[in-house]
Each structure stands twice: as structure tokens, then as C-alpha cells.
Amino acid sequence: MTFVDAIPAGRLKAHSRLYDSFLILGGSFLMALSAQIAIPLPFSPVPITGQTFAVLVVGMLLGRWRGTAAVLAYLTEGILGLPVFAGGVAGIAKILGPTGGYLVSFLPAAYLAGYLAEKGWDRKISTTFLAMTLGNVIIFGFGALWLARFVGLDQALSLGVLPFLAGDAVKIGLATLVLPGAWKLLGDKK
After folding, report:
1. Would you kindly state where each structural domain of the chain is located, as residue ranges?
2. Cα–Cα distance list, 166 to 26, 159, 163, 172 (Å)
């Protein structure tokens, strides 16, 4: 059971395709919104954004299939020209550019976070922290390897990983507090 399965949704839940579509589009909207919280770094092609937080939280809230579908919807929206990527950018060039690996990595990261949430990892602070950290490792790994094609591996680590570790630790901390707390408010219905 995921977080959204515990929310009484009345008639909307009775129409499961409509319900799923609403959740998936809502998740993609949250990612698009969080991408607009962007701080460009003058020394790096990778900006600081709220995307990783949103991707992992959406994955954990919606579960592996709906969470991954939300990321796929987000990426598709951006590729098709909607200004959903960081800084209001859109287009396939963003996916093929230096930061494309981070964007593509959102798919397996959301899947893993959702899978672990389905196994109950979003119920306790320790396992939520671990799930979010594992998702971040996927994002940093894919992102840095892709970025290395443009700047070399040493530079990829110094430009695409190290400057973001402290901020991502804060994001993981926030999610770690929010998710188990939300289950307590709902009354753990697993």
C-alpha cells in the first residue's frame, strides 16, 4: 500500500484510471514546480533545484508504477516543449545535453523509491532515510556519468556531485520527517 492508497478518494477512486491519471499528472506537476526552484551555479552546468526532492517524494507517495509514470509524464511534457525543466527550459536538447543524465535518472530513482515505499520503507525514519539516499545515489550516478561525457569524470564529480551533497542531505532530511509523519497522521493502514 502506498500513501495515496490510504487517502479516501470517494468517487474518484472508484474510477481507478481517472484516479491514477490525476495522481500521475499531479506528481508531474509537483516535479515541474520544484524544477522552477532553481539556483544556477556559475561554475557548473547543473543548477541546484528542488527536483530530486520532488522525484523521490512522488515515487514514495505514489508507488513504483504511478511514481515512474509521473516522471515519464514530466519528461514527456518537457520534451514536447512545455517549460517544465529547471529555469523554464523545454525540449529534447535538455535531455541530450550535459544535465540529461540527471533527468533520465529520475525514472529508476522514482521506481526504486516507490518500490521501497510499497515494502513499508516510508513508515520509519531510518528506512525512509535509506530509501531516499539510495534514490539520490542513482540520480548522482547516472547524472555524473552522463555529465562526464561533456566534462570528463573528475570534473563531473566536482561539478555535478560534490556541490550538491549538503543540499540533498537537507532534502533527504525533510522527506525523512514528512513521510513517516504523514503515515502517523493517516493512521498506518498497511
Report:
1. 4-186
2. 28, 14, 7, 10
Distances (CA, A) of 10 to 13, 18, 66, 149: 6, 12, 19, 49
Q: Which three cell numbers stand for residue 79?
A: 520534451
- Reduced to 3 states (helix: H, G, I; strand: E, B; else coil), residue 42 is coil
pTM of the entire predicted model: 0.88
pLDDT in tens, the chain (190 residues): 665 555 555 555 556 888 899 999 999 999 999 999 999 999 999 999 999 999 999 999 999 999 999 999 999 999 999 999 999 999 999 999 999 999 999 999 999 999 999 999 988 889 999 999 999 999 999 999 999 999 999 999 999 999 999 999 999 998 888 887 777 765 655 4
Across-strand partners of 137? none
Residues 6+ apart with CB under 8 A from 154: none
In this structure, which amino acid lies at residue 122?
Answer: D
The residue count of the chain comes to 190
**d(Cα 2, Cα 41) in Å, to the nearest integer?**
36
C-alpha neighbours within 13 Å on the C-beta side of residue 38: 18
Q: Tell me the fold of 4-186.
A: Arp2/3 complex 21 kDa subunit ARPC3 (1.10.1760)
